[in-house]
Amino acid sequence: MKEDDREVGRRLRIALAAKGVRQGKLAERTGLSQSGLSLLLNGKSGTPRPATLKALAAGLNVPEACFRADGPMGPLLVDDDASWTASMRVGEVDEHGEIKLLLEVNGVEGTMHLSRELWTTVAEAAGWTK
Question: Which class is domain 3-77?
Answer without folding.
Answer: mainly alpha
